[in-house]
Amino acid sequence: MRWEDIEEQFDLDIPEDEPIFPVNIVCKLLDLQYYTLHEIVKEGILNKAKKAKKKETKKKKLFSFEDMKALKYIKHLVEEEGVNIKGVKIILKLKEERE
Question: Does 8 map to a domain?
Fold first, then answer.
């Protein structure tokens, strides 16, 4: 069996909007402070973060690939452009209205 056949057979087809990344992984991959991520979710900027039921009673927020892309842009606005969280919310709302 060729390697290409094996790769194709075991390829994962995960939809872009499927929430799979927990908070700690999001923070690590994007080099984002937990507090900043918490504020973004709290302000409703990224309201796609879904809660998944674990075996324990504790619930965990999960983020999708789409959420990760949006968070990367939000991080740029906050860290590189100096926009605060409320400003980010306004920018994204105006962007959404233009589309």
Answer: no
Complete DSSP assignment for 43-74: TTTTTTPEEEE-SSS-EEEEE-HHHHHHHHHH
Determine, yes or no, domain membership for 5. no
Q: In the numeric block, which tokens belong to residue 48?
A: 């796609």
pTM of the model: 0.77
Three-state DSSP at 77 gives: helix
What is the domain count for the chain?
Answer: 1
> Tokens 């879904």 sit at which residue?
50
Neighbouring C-alpha atoms within 13 Å toward the C-beta of 16: 5
**Residue 65: inside a domain, yes or no?**
yes
Domain range for 57 is 20-98
pLDDT (tens digit, 9 = 90+) per residue, 3-55?
Answer: 677 777 777 788 888 999 999 999 999 999 999 999 999 888 886 555 555 44
